Amino acid sequence: MSSNGAPPSKPLALLKQQESISSLKPSQLTYAEILALLQGQDDEWLFNRANLATESDFNKQVYLRGIVEFSNHCRNNCNYCGLRADNRSVKRYRLSIEEILNAVDTIAALGLGTVVLQSGDDFKYSVNAISTLIAEIKQRHNLAITLSLGDRKLEELKQWREAGADRYLLKMETFDRALFSRCRPKANFDDRIARLIYLQSLGFQTGSGIITDLPGMTDEILAHDIQRLSEMQLDMLACGPFIAHAQTPLAQEPNGNALKSHRVSAILRLMNPGANIPATSSLDALEAGAREQALKRGCNVVMPSFTPTNVCADYNIYPGKNLRQNPATERLKQICQQIQNHGLIASFSRGDSKRTPYVSRH
Ligand code: SAH
User: Fold this and answer.
1) Given the CA of residue 243, which atom of ligand 1 is nearest to it?
2) pTM value > 0.85
3) How far does the centroid of ligand 1 lie from the alpha carbon of residue 238, in Å?
4) Whose CA is nearest to atom 24 of ligand 1?
5) pLDDT for 268-278, tens place per residue?
6) Model confidence pLDDT, tens digit, residues 15-50
7) How does pLDDT run across 69-115, given as a tens digit for each residue?
């Protein structure tokens, strides 16, 4: 019996007859099945299967990534994001290369295997400055580098790959063209998809994702988003719930739902074996414990922030983001403890995607 009391639909019942998780192929979840699962028709089955699939891919390991959010300047005006250019009440900051390297040194000293460099779409950092930063990190440390710098030029992405960057994360937020245009008035839908395909062709481990419950997003749109996202054969897939930010045009809209986001990551897990799926921090901003719970529902990555404490609260993409007092080492310990409490193992390895054979440039 399903969670809403209705008997499972025929497609789901058929799906349940699959003998083992390894027999599930991406194509085996149809649009109708995805929609039924999104609507909570069989959470127990979905979460159990997603957890089994995660365990079979990653052996209970949860990959840790240290993230440095090095600038909150942004030229874009995304209607959901607190860092949008028109938000004049943000205290803007830009870390120097030196400050970024200090944060990276901390991440390496603590033994983590990956650093994620993220910012608003801040073009003040030249292509060469970022290339030099990548090369310097590679010189100093044996770290995988993930970039999440937004819509930069194709030549720039190529130069960064050549400088040694390993991964790039660029969330579509939604694959629905009309909803995308409404939420991201200054961005171009086709260009963003083209960038993702180009990143893949450069040999980056490439990631994208969606914001669940974006105002205007229906379950039908979300089901299509999951299909489109899965068709792209990505190495990293991220989903997190929408959280209304007071200084944005979407301030009055309702927050998203943690359970819906969990369903999406669980479905993505079934459709994308071997891909890395983070338990996003927006889950915790919404509901205490929701991020940890996601680790038992298809997610296998956690990204603690190492942005310096004097600026981290200003990386306020949504309320509740980066609110913290205690130092990085203590927070890392706490996260490892939470992971252990769930019977999982905190992994300090690079944690490459198991989806495609990966060639490091270094
Ligand atoms: N500027 C870069 C990096 C953005 S990272 C880029 O555009 O790719 C910030 C991520 O936070 C976004 O991709 C988005 O998925 C998420 N985000 C922003 N505002 C949000 C909100 N209000 N609620 C939930 N997620 C949000």
Assistant:
1) 23
2) yes
3) 11
4) 242
5) 999 999 999 99
6) 665 545 555 554 479 999 999 999 999 999 999 999
7) 999 999 999 999 999 999 999 999 999 999 999 999 999 999 999 99
Q: Which residue has its alpha carbon closest to ligand 1 atom 25?
A: 242
User: Ligand 1: residues whose CB is within 6 Å?
Assistant: 80-81, 118, 120-121, 148, 150, 170-171, 173, 211, 240, 242-243, 245, 282, 317-318
Ligand 1 center to 90 CA (angstroms): 16
| Dist. CA 317 → ligand 1 center (Å) | 7
* Three state DSSP letters for the chain: CCCCCCCCCHHHHHHHCCCCHHHCCHHHCCHHHHHHHHCCCCHHHHHHHHHHHHHHHHCCEEEECEEEEEECCCCCCCCCCCCCCCCCCCCCCECCHHHHHHHHHHHHHCCCCEEEEEECCCCCCCHHHHHHHHHHHHHHCCCEEEEECCCCCHHHHHHHHHHCCCEEECCCECCCHHHHHHHCCCCCHHHHHHHHHHHHHCCCEEEEEEEECCCCCCHHHHHHHHHHHHHCCCCEEEEEECCCCCCCCCCCCCCCCHHHHHHHHHHHHHHCCCCECECCHHHHHHCCCHHHHHCCCCCCEECCECCCCCCHHHCCCCCCCCCCCCCHHHHHHHHHHHHHHCCCEEECCCCCCCCCCCCCCC
Q: 150 alpha carbon to ligand 1 midpoint, in Å?
A: 10
What's the gap in Å between 94 CA and the centre of ligand 1? Answer: 18
Give Cα 15 to chain centroid, integer Å.
28
CA of 261 to the centre of ligand 1 (A): 15
- Give the pLDDT confidence score for residue 327 in this predicted structure: 86
Tokens 């840790």 belong to residue:
64
Mutate to test the pocket of ligand 1, among 317, 318, 321, 322 (most ligand atoms within 8 A of CB): 317
Cβ atoms of 198 and 154 closer than 8 Å: yes
Atom number, ligand 1, closest to the C-alpha of residue 81:
19
Q: Which atom of ligand 1 is nearest to the CA of 80?
A: 22
Distance 236 CA to ligand 1 centre (A): 15
